[in-house]
Amino acid sequence: MAMSKGFRVHFKNDLQSPFSILLERRGREETVLFESGAIALLSPQETDAVRRQYAPLTSAYCCLGVLELRLDDATTISYLTLVTGCVSAGRVGDSEFFRVTATAFVSLRNRGDDEERIDDVRRHLDSGSFYFSWSAASGEPARDLGLRAQRVAAATETDERFFWNCALHAPLARYGVAAGDWLARLMCGGVEVRTIYVGHRRAKACVISRLSCERAGTRFNVRGADDDGHVANFVETEQAVFVDDAVASYVQTRGSVPLFWEQPGVQVGSHRIRMSRGHEMHAPAFDRHLSDTRDLYGDQVIVNLLGSKEGERVLSQAFQSHHRASQHWGAIPHVAYDYHAMIKGGNKDNLKVLRGKLQKQLDSFGFFHEQGDDVRQQQSGVIRTNCLDCLDRTNNVQTYLAMLVLPRQLAALGLATPSIVSRCEDVFRAMWAENGNHVSRIYAGTGALDGKTKLKDGARSVTRTIQNNFLDSGKQEAIDILLVGVATRGAARDRARALLPARLLPRAPPALLRDACARHLEFTRHVPVRITIGTWNVNGGGTARNIAFRHHSLADWLLDNHLRQQSASLVDVAAATAEDWSKPVDIFAVGFEEIVDLNASNIMSASTENQKSWRDEIQRTICRDRRYVVVASEQLVGVCLFVFARPEHAPHVRDVAATTAKTGLGGATGNKGAVAIRLQFHATSMAFVCAHLAAGQSQVADRNRDYAEIARAIAFPPARTLAGHDYVFWCGDFNYRIDMPIDDVKDCVRRGDFAALTAADQLTTQRDAGNAFAGYREGALSFAPTYKYDLFSDDYDTSDKQRAPAWTDRVLWRRRVHPGEDAAFDADRLLHYGRAELKTSDHRPVVAMIEVEVQRVDAARRERALRDAVRALGPPDATVVVSLDDEDAAEEDAASALDDEFVDGVVERLGAVGDLVLVRFVGATMWATFGEERQALRASELGSITVGGRRAAVSLKTPDWEERVDRELKIGVNAGGGGVEDATVDRETNETRFAYEMGGRDDDDVSVGSSGRETPETLATEKPRRPPPPRRPPPPQRPVAPPVAAPRARARAGVVNIRTPPRPPGSDAAVTVRSPFSPAAGKVAHLPPPLLPLAGMSKPSSTTDLQSWPPEGAVGGTRPGIPRNWSWDAVLDTGQPDEGGCAPGSPGTPPELSFDLGDPGTPPPHPDDFAELGDPGTPPLLSGDFSELGDPGTPPPLPDDFAHLGDPGTPPPLPGDFTQLGDPGTPPPLPENFAEFGDPGTPPLSPPELPGNERFFFPIDSDKSGQRVIATRPPPPIPTRRAPPPPPR
């Protein structure tokens, strides 16, 4: 059986109920309902009860799940993700593999601009790099593309490393829907399948590459490893041969060098590489990576293809150095093979050298061989190959190694003849070449460079350069949205990532993350950590090896300052115990300004030699008593920042990042600006900023602007801001001065009157005023001003400029208070704040020692807190079941037990508990879904309720929800189930759904060539259609007698909408439609605010835009259409019209309609009102009413009533019938009457649809003057023909 479009999507866009989507799959009687943020599995009976309310929207080959795009902590947009185009990549057994070529996203809230938000995600999914599998055998699961043959034989769970739409499965599993029955698993990589005939047997040759999603990204955005040991571009490639029921499989891996490295700036034909952390800080991630790969694949051997030029040599040496120092050195061989040097001129014969080095591992690792259910051989290890990008060189070497193993695979399958081996080698070489192109397109944007054609390789290199440097940011955001649901991480998400296991972030609901983080005090403890922060403007003083520093030690500044400057310390050191100062400093953050001269040459391209010199000197100094390692360093022209930590803290330091912000010349140059480094220590985030602000005595406003720009511009990937950190430390030359005459300043310094100077300090006054550094703390300024000195002197500036002394060099910090914490809690205290007497610059260095409280997570207590958070949150499906007690249910038929009065009473009682969004009827039970999980939990605590003298039990729909959620938190995948299929419902009905067959068309099939090899045939791509306008009903038949209103009946198996659609922003604006006809009653009719169509519709923003609005094709259910011959003018918000209009109630103004259209429960206040639009089941209320619009089955109550509206060809029954009610003297209008509402293209109708001055309000934007807009129809022409004669009675 060939694959066809087996999924159908239907929509309901009724103005009176929320937007709703119904998903149907061929072969299944149930359907999945998406409405009001809830997901429900409908039984066949429920589907039959509601299917007439839905219209077809689109069809698809498979469904990928629900993409949840989190705009912020409170707003989430959900998209039903569908595959609408695919191409067959080949078949193995009953499983066929398809490459995705087109996808569709249906917004579950039906906003027109929602589709634009995920355009990059759609392009990424449509790029041809994603695959899913489908089983041709009915009822049999398809082969999991994410599992290699050896793991398939072990019957293990799916490998989440290659499960790219795992987060899209989570919403269905959360509501108890078995995601495996409805959704496909998506794998990113490459699939190549060929059919090889060997005599009378047919073999399948496969090369399948699986890209890991654990550290996914593009070439220059994602490099190296992360703190969990995941590496960029990690690919598992399997070479497999299937013959009958036997398989032989060989696996290799590739991945980026597992260190912290990057390629900053624009890379054009160069390999500039920067190690982003200190040497020792790589060890924890390096060890995690090799440990994880050994657990997954067994023994390892590393093949390092990096060269000896430019940055590759530095990276290769670091790789080998860390490997030798790790615990894996003896167990994992490291083979260094300079590919470019060995394969000069394309001479691949030198690969035999590599073969000699790997022959032992090739023999010992073997391959996987299975015959039927008998596993004959296991692969015990893999060869891990890497180059810089893990693309071209890696693919060539992996192809060579695979060809060495292929004859052994064929021999194990009984296909060892030379001719067969030769044919198979040719086929596999071609497939490996295509495999290299697949992997290269994903990571670099182009096919692989094969070295055969210089022109083609050159063109691809240029394309890569442009793509990777300038166009990959959108692709990276799309990958983040697909995997995590967000493109950027806010402060709340960073907090969750610091406190909670990483496995929770993609699939846990935001409410659970917030609740778990709010419980952080239950599973964390505070640990004191000492941080020393220093800053010094060295005035371009060169390197630390300068002869000027011969008699000065940096230890006086960074290590012994609190001992040498007791008088300048905030803490009385003499009174402090020796134990207090014996505690070592945990983190050093040292900032410099003007480490190079601020000349034009250095501003354009500053040297890093001074940075390295100062780093080495500082590390040598602070390691006097105990060892410290470099965490990170960053330089911006003359501003430089270093962060050091004790080596035992390295495993607990994560997410290190550095960035810069320029403020010189309006942000164009870096002579002024800041550098920043952030890190996470245990569960506490810290950011260190070293800044050099604008100089000048009177430039206070410029300094304030520099501070504000730095605070705004600094953003660490991915989009972390300074405000989102637990601690933020600022140091540097801020250049704030003292607003006092120079002589007064010097006099206060001589007298030690620092309090008077502090009162005039610009930074202190600006901070108190909230203009800069608002909320930051600083120690007391109990030391002399640090600027400006004569070099090698204790004298302040004696030059002609005579600059006044000032505290330009400062250290400030801020702590963020989390929910549940006491704001008065002393989580940080200043131990020392002073200056050092190093005289080689015109500034004196400043140092501060601060003790902060860092949160450390207890994993066992965290698991208990997570379970408590889950129990407090409630069941994920937020659904309770209401059922009558057994005694009451036995007295009456189950189908009639839930009458209207009882149901309304239950809805009222449950509505008092929470926000009901969905009510369903299953058998003799009523299922109620709430907007929040906690509300369902509170409702279940009622136990029972009494309505109308009858008692009903209230229980949770999923009693074992705690165990299910607990399983999901542990293994990351909820098996689902527990839906309607577990309830007692009638399953005998098996009629065709929605009046069309689910079978595919002939052109939907994937054909198989006569040669036996699959011929991929592009399947039809279909976009979701815009919801169609409502059809015009046929004219009614006149009854003998007026109809009698029947009592309202509620379906026993069906869905009841509870939540009304929310009013979008701007819904207080209105469009008013005026009619020239004389009315019988004058009131105002308000239409409910409509939902926007799928394709979106822009709203007018001014009166000028209204001339072309609404656009052609506006349909019912979106916005009422306005005929083209109407004019627009403006009406004030008070309701009074401009000139040319008439105010309601003024002489000559026709009265308006009375009741709100679209409100079935509101009776008309006047007898001559017309029946409500859109309520076909409501009979006319009074004899003078109009027949209901859009209800072909409801006859007019009197013979002299109007002909049915919408039937222009119906002659009037009496001569007076065309007259307006209440206005006998008005001649009948002509057929140029206004068109049916919502259908501008409809031909003119018969007598006026609405008598009087009709006003239809629906939301639009007001213009800049604050006025509302109004649409006015011009008066009709005077009739020139006589009324038709009356028909015979």
Automatic annotation (TrEMBL):
InterPro entries the record matches: Endo/exonu/phosph_ase_sf (IPR036691), IP5 (IPR046985), IPPc (IPR000300), Nucleotide-bd_a/b_plait_sf (IPR012677), SAC_dom (IPR002013), SYNJ1/2_RRM (IPR015047)
Keyword DNA-binding attached: no
Domain SAC: 121-445
Biased segments, Pro residues type: 1030-1045, 1241-1250, 1273-1289
Superkingdom per UniProt: Eukaryota
Residue stretches of biased makeup (Basic and acidic residues): 1014-1025
Region (Disordered): 994-1073, 1092-1289
Homology family: In the central section; belongs to the inositol 1,4,5-trisphosphate 5-phosphatase family.
Record's protein name: phosphoinositide 5-phosphatase
Native organism: Priapulus caudatus
Gene assigned in the entry: LOC106810193
